[in-house]
Amino acid sequence: MAELLDTQGGGRCTVANRTATLGSARARNVFPRARRALLAVALLGLFGGLALAVLSLSEPAPGLAALVSERLGESGVDHPVTAVLLNFRGYDTLLELVVLLLALVGAWSVGRARGCAGNAPGPLLSELPRLLAPLMVLVAGYLLWVGAHAPGGAFQAGSLLGGVGILLCLSGRTLPDWAMGLPIRLLAVLGVAVFALLGVVVAMLPGSAPLDWPPAQAKTLILSIELAAMVSIGVILAALFTGGRP
Amino acid sequence: VTQPVFWGLVGMALVIIGLYALLAHAHLLRKVLALNVMSSGVFLVFIGLARSAPGDGAPMAADPVPQAMVLTGIVVAVAATGLALALIVRLRAVTGRTTLGDDAGD
Fold first, then answer.
1. Which of A54, A96, A99 sits opposite B9 (nearest CB)?
2. Cβ contact (<8 Å) for A39 and B88?
């Protein structure tokens, strides 16, 4: 990704070369004007059909809001979206973390990262992260905690941590070599591992099922999972940005 | 037009605009961006229609289940975008091209 966004040299091709590629791609593949117009008309027709479908929906839409608020007390958190994400539909969230991990494995199997050390930032970008990165980590921690009773949670906090990683990468800072091997991989799988492990452990309680948190411990369990998920999401997003395995 | 229906229509329009760009542009980066516009449209439709009809003077009550599912969808879309961009970088490194198709060489 860094390579596609790179505009400050250090990439493998010159600017002239790059514009040539873009230009020829445009010339070769652009539809003739008549076919573009035909496509636009067809898509307008499709939009008309979709708009009719939206307009014909019954207005007080049936939903699950009442059901969620009725059972919110057993979920361990006070915010309905967090309760749905980590308790009522826990499988969705577990598999979503798996999808993130799979994307990272896919990106890593495609090629090596160019590394962040080659980025030569301007004066602003080289000094600003000193100020911003600690603040962003602090806000991520706040978002994680506040997710129990207000909008927030592991994904918002994790994407902020990913932003910290991207900012540090763009400013030419890089992880020490010892962290590039096993530690970064362990952090990337931490979220899935903690989520799945706790989900299996609670299944051993009598009369329980996988990911069925007992209401008394639900808040502790959900916060532990969210903490691990936040770290993993941040690491995975930042690693995806570098575009390949370290 | 009520608010949920309005956001539903805006979301549909985003999907159509993204679909047009996906079909009309050859550069793979543009196609990935078009797919992202399309997914934003789908999320907007889902979130918009999840707001149930308000009572008199009462604030809009939103259904949390679609919101949680859209949050999941956003993360999956980000993951797919990251993987697609990695594949594009690799394609460019190997073939020197950033478009699909059989015609070799620029």
1. A54
2. no
Residue in A39, A60, A89 closest to B68 by CB? A89
Specify burial of residue B91 (Cβ count, 10 A radius: 0-12, 13-18, 19+). middle
pLDDT number for residue A207? 82
pLDDT tens digit sequence for A47-85: 999 999 888 876 666 678 878 888 888 888 988 889 999
Nearest-angstrom CA–CA distance, B70 and B22: 22
Contact A22 B98 (CB under 8 A): yes
Chain A interface disruption, residue of B72, B91, B95, B97, most A CBs within 10 A: B72
Q: Confirm or reject contact between B79 and chain A (CB < 8 A).
A: yes
Whole-Å CA distances, A61 to A85, B50, B52, B64, B68? 21, 8, 6, 13, 17
* Amino acid, res. A119: N
Question: How high does pLDDT run on average in chain A?
Answer: 85
Nearest chain A residue to B81 by CA distance is A103
Three-state DSSP at A151 gives: coil
Count of CB contacts below 8 A, A vs B? 164
- Tens digits of pLDDT across chain B (106 residues): 678 888 889 999 999 999 999 999 889 999 999 999 999 999 999 888 877 554 434 444 678 888 899 999 999 999 999 999 999 999 999 998 888 876 544 4
> Using CB atoms within 10 A of its CB, is residue A217 exposed (0-12), middle (13-18) or buried (19+)?
middle
Task: Provide the shortest C-alpha distance from residue A164 to chain B (in Å).
Answer: 17
Residue-wise pLDDT tens digits, A1-51: 444 544 443 444 444 444 445 545 454 555 678 888 999 999 999 999 999
User: Within an 8 Å CB–CB cutoff, is residue A68 touching chain B?
Assistant: yes
